[in-house]
Amino acid sequence: MIKYFGSAYQFGTLGGILSLIAFGVLAWMVPDPTNLNLIFGYIITPISIFLALKFFKDYTNNGFLSFAEGMSVGFVTYMIIALLSVVGIWAIFQVFPEFFETVKASKLQVMANSRDTIISQVGEASYENTQESLLKMSPLDIALNDGIWKIVPGLFFTIIISIILRKNPN
């Protein structure tokens, strides 16, 4: 089993660590790094998946890669990235609760500034429900959201990269 997932563990861990580093650097630069960290995730996730699949194909599997192998290695890669990201962001918020409150206040301020636009698009009831949800938001909610937005594009990129790199023995 380690034969199939060795590169996934390596590049998934690397991607997760880079994601946490990005979150830390962005937290130092802006009051709410969550949205910018999602953009970084759209960059690091496909790169990590590509490297894991390419490394698996070239160095572990004698130059061959089936679609199923690509999907399996890619799945493990993006799940490790997401797991490390969720645990790391949650831990950062646990260690620095004032930082979580700053992020939460920033999200509430964005809602307040966009009140009229949001109400015109989705209605007052939806706006009130969203605001209530933001008030109840916990550090785990933000961490899970970040993890989900590593998994969703990870699946998409894994499909594409697995098709591109696929090479079966004749």
Automatic annotation (TrEMBL):
It comes from the Bacteria. Keywords: Membrane, Transmembrane, Transmembrane helix. The chain crosses the membrane at residues 12-30, 36-56, 68-93, 147-165. This is DUF4199 domain-containing protein. It comes from Algoriphagus kandeliae.
